[in-house]
Known about the structure:
This protein is α/β, with parallel strands linked by helices. It contains 13 helices and 14 strands.
Amino acid sequence: MPEEGKGQPEDLPPEEPEDQLSITQHSVTIDQQEIHYTVTAGTIVLKEEQEKDSKSGGEKAKASVFFVAYTLDNAGDTTKRPITFSFNGGPGSSSVWLHLGVLGPRCVETDQQGNLLQPPYQLVENQYSVLDQTDLVFIDPISTGFSRVVQGEVAKQFHGFKKDIESIGDFIRLYTTRYQRWTSPKFLIGESYGTTRAAGLSGYLQERHGLYLNGIMLISSVLDFQTIRFMNGNDLPYILYLPSFTAAAWYHNLLDEGLQADLYQTLEEVEAFAVGEYTLALMKGVELPEDERQEITRKLAHYTGLPIDYIERTDLRINIIRFCKELLRDQGRTVGRFDSRFTGLDRDSAGERFEYDPSYTNILGPYTATLNDYLRSQLKFESDLAYEILTDRVHPWNYDTHQNQYVNVTDTLRKAMTTNPYLKVFVASGYYDLATPYMATRYTFNHLGLDKSLQQNVSISYYEAGHMMYVHQQSLIQLKEDLASFIQLANPL
Length: 493
């Protein structure tokens, strides 16, 4: 037995964290062809190089980042095989949604519309996976999924705009180096806040690591937060959300016969009104003449299915949260923020806010159950940690680099595309998305500031679904076709 105070277990330094990886082989049928692939699931320890005058010197372990990587077997020269790094948003979301919703070779079973099925839930083969086009690496940001800081580190340091981009970018650099993918065509795909992260990464990867991308895919994009923040003095969201409000009302058959006849024609009409008469009316404020005010009120009611007296009480400004509660109030229903096709039931029809978002609760249970089972039973990765699907642990999120301004990464993306004129961007937007509305995305890219010679590098597609448009079967099929075409277009090999 060691002497007291000498060599006691509590005196020993903490063990150096190690990577934990599980490697398995699988197959899937995509486009009537059987594909064999390898999955690497596990954690890689992320380290930071210490300053020369640091007492510890060398590299210091900071976090253990969980990922799931899919690589095609017998792919030949990997320098010709594209690789795509994927993440979701939140902030606080794991990568589960894109992983099991659209990209990966296994997906959550749903009906054609994406409605909640009776539990228990299961995964099925995803015949619309993009694994036939690109290898895939799904990354869980720190404090999400199984990603955690190492002993002695504070998680809060990673819960912010700047450090989040740096840590994900450093992981991508490390993975690219270890698995010898520096000369492969490289892509990013992000959803929601993940699009903010992707735009930030376009600059960080180029400028910090010299890692140039071939393409970025943005699912339900938000690059300029001014377009979605309903705050006093900011009229932009009221304008940009209006067509999405119309789409929701159209879906629930609340518009008059003329507007119900053709969704696309109706949206075109509303878009013109939003950027024309409606914008001018809001800009006039209290100087708006009464007759003009009454006309704008009438048209807003006409285009949203909301009562005229309600529009008057909003001062011509319809807030997203209020809209979700108000649209079907007389039916005792609410509509989803992520996808306004779905409806919910609150305790009562009073109040301004819904109790829950039915478009989120529809997917939370199925994705959580199937992901937890899949990792352990099929990918053979075992952990007793709670897999953080969408966590509040990262909040408050630190936006210290954007003090007294809206978060805006458009110029980072513009600069990356200017520096690397071969970088192409694909954007997917859902008509029924009330979290990142499609017209706000269009507005953002119309104001990106790209030189005319680069504007053809951006393409936008629209889907008759919401934020996670892939839960809708027809939109999933369309999205697969669009993503495959984009990867082929942006891949020079």
